[in-house]
Specification:
InterPro entries: 4Fe4S_Fe-S-bd (IPR017896), 4Fe4S_Fe_S_CS (IPR017900), FrhB_FdhB_C (IPR007525), Polyferredoxin-like_ET (IPR052977)
Protein name: Coenzyme F420-reducing hydrogenase beta subunit
Strand content: 15-25%
Number of strands: 13
Bound molecules: flavin-adenine dinucleotide
GO molecular function, one term: metal ion binding
Organism: Marinisporobacter balticus
CATH architecture of the largest domain: 3-Layer(aba) Sandwich
Keywords: Iron, Iron-sulfur, Metal-binding
Number of domains: 2
C-alpha cells in the first residue's frame, strides 16, 4: 500500500468512498488513520491506471451535474407517534422509507454494527427499518454499498439512499447517470465525528457502569425534542441519560469541536442547493400557523429540491403533518446548512491525550482549560 493515488490531501478528502467503489480492480481500499477516519489507500501493483478514481472524486472535480435549485420548504412530522418519538427529528426519513419499501424498493442508510461501528447497509423489509433510524454522530463506513445500489437500480428496484451531503455526491458521481428510480436524501450536517473518539467514549461509560452496552440513542426526547439528550442502555439493566450540555460526547462535538473529520471544517457541500432530491433536518425555531400544535415530539425540516421529491412527499401526505414554510426562516436557526464549523483549539490535544486518558476525564479537563481562558 502506498499513498493514495488520487493524491488528495487528507484535510479535504471526505472519505465518501466513490473512488474505492469505482475501481475495477480493487486497487483502492479504505483504511483508518490515527484519528479513526477512513481514507483511500492505493496499491500501485494492482492499479491499471484507468483514472476512474480521479473522475468520480467529488472533492477534486467540480460537480458535473447542475445543482438542483430549491423548490419548496416544509415543516413536517410523522403522524405515527411511535415513529416520531423514535426518530431524531420528526420521523420523515421513516415515512419516506416505508413508502419506498411498500413499492417493493429498498432503503440504504447508516446502522450500528458489532461494537457500535457505524456502517451503511441496504434493507428490503420493514422489520429492519429500526436499524437505520436515528442519527449516529460518527462517520458511517460506505464499504461497497454504491455497487449494490447500482445493481438494485439496474434491476429496476426503487432505491432510497440517505447519507451525508458528501456521500450523496459520492454516490451520484459513482453512478455517472441519473436514475428515475433513485431518491437521494441528505441532511443538514454539522460534521461527522471520529469512530475512534466514539469508541473511547463508550469504553469510558462501560467502565463506569461495569457493563456492556445494549443500545445507544442519541437525541433521545425523554425531556422533549428541544431538550434532547443521550441515552445509553446497558446489558446489566442500568441506563445512562445526560442532556446535550452535560453528555461528554456531545460536549466534545457541539461545544469544543474536538473530533470532527478534518474535511468537515472546510466542507465543499455547504449550500441550500444540493445534489439530493430532499434535504432533511431538525426544524429548530419552527413557527407554525397553529401555535397549539405539539412540536416537542420532534419537527422535521424538509427542503424539496426536485419534482421527484414533491411527488414522494405527495405520496406520504396522508401519513404526515405538513406545512409549507420559508427557507430563510429555517436556515436562520440552522447555519450548519451553509457554514462549516471551525476546528476547536484543543482538537490536536484531544487526539494526543485520548490514547492514555479516560474519555470522560479528558473532556472535563478540556472544559476546565477552556473556562480558564
Ligand atoms: C452526523 C450528523 C450531523 C447532523 N447535523 C445536523 C445539523 O447540524 N442540523 C440539523 O438540523 N440536522 C442535522 N442532522 C440531521 C438530523 O439529525 C436528522 O438525521 C434528520 O433531520 C432526519 O431525521 P428524521 O427524524 O427524519 O429521521 P431519523 O430516523 O433520525 O433518520 C436518520 C437518517 O439518517 C441516516 N444516518 C444516521 N446517521 C448517519 C450517519 N452517521 N451518516 C450517514 N447517514 C446517517 C440514517 O440512516 C437515517 O436514514 C445530522 C445528522 C447526522 C447523522
Amino acid at each position: 500500500m502506498g499513498l493514495n493515488m488520487i493524491n488528495i490531501q487528507s484535510e479535504i478528502c471526505n472519505g465518501c468512498a466513490a473512488c474505492s467503489n469505482i475501481c475495477p480492480v480493487d486497487a483502492i481500499k479504505m483504511d483508518y488513520d490515527q484519528e479513526g477516519f477512513l481514507y483511500p489507500f492505493f496499491d500501485s501493483t494492482i492499479c491499471i491506471k484507468c483514472e476512474q478514481c480521479l473522475k468520480v472524486c467529488p472533492v477534486i472535480n467540480e460537480q458535473k451535474e447542475q445543482k438542483t435549485s430549491r423548490l419548496r420548504t416544509f415543516a413536517a412530522w410523522s403522524n405515527n407517534n411511535e415513529i416520531r418519538l423514535l426518530s431524531t427529528s420528526g420521523g420523515i426519513f421513516s415515512e419516506l422509507a416505508l413508502k419506498v419499501l411498500q413499492k417493493g424498493g429498498c432503503v440504504s442508510g447508516a446502522k450500528y454494527t458489532k461494537g457500535f461501528v457505524v456502517k451503511h447497509d441496504l434493507i428490503n423489509i420493514e422489520s429492519e427499518l429500526h436499524q437505520l433510524m436515528q442519527s449516529k454522530y460518527v462517520q458511517s463506513e460506505i464499504g461497497y454499498i454504491y455497487r449494490l445500489i447500482k445493481k438494485k437500480l439496474e434491476e429496476d428496484r426503487w432505491v432510497l439512499f440517505v447519507g451525508t451531503p458528501c456521500q450523496v455526491v459520492g454516490l451520484s458521481n459513482y453512478l455517472t447517470k441519473k436514475y428515475d428510480n433513485l431518491i437521494l436524501v441528505d441532511f443538514i450536517c454539522r460534521g461527522v465525528n471520529s469512530g475512534k473518539a466514539f469508541k473511547c467514549y463508550l469504553e469510558s461509560l462501560m467502565n463506569e457502569y461495569d457493563s456492556e452496552i445494549k443500545r445507544v440513542w442519541f437525541k433521545n426526547k425523554k425531556n422533549g425534542w428541544n431538550k434532547f439528550g443521550t441515552k445509553i442502555d446497558f446489558l446489566n439493566g442500568e441506563y445512562y441519560f445526560a442532556d446535550r450540555y452535560k453528555d461528554p460526547f456531545m460536549v466534545g462535538y457541539l461545544k469544543h469541536n474536538l473530533y470532527m473529520r478534518p474535511s468537515c471544517h472546510q466542507c465543499k457541500f455547504k449550500s441550500v442547493e444540493r445534489n439530493s432530491d430532499i434535504t432533511l433536518a431538525d426544524y429548530w425555531g419552527v413557527k407554525l400557523r397553529d401555535e397549539s400544535l405539539d412540536i416537542e415530539k420532534g419537527t422535521s425540516l424538509i427542503i424539496a429540491h426536485s419534482e421527484k421529491a414533491l411527488k414522494i412527499i405527495d405520496e406520504i401526505k396522508s401519513n404526515i403533518y405538513l406545512e409549507e414554510s420559508s427557507l430563510e426562516e429555517a436556515i436562520t436557526n440552522n447555519l450548519c446548512a451553509i457554514e462549516s464549523t471551525k476546528a476547536g483549539q484543543y482538537r490536536n490535544y484531544f487526539f494526543e491525550k485520548v490514547k492514555e486518558t479516560d474519555f470522560l476525564d479528558l473532556i472535563n479537563k478540556i472544559t476546565d482549560m477552556e473556562a480558564k481562558q
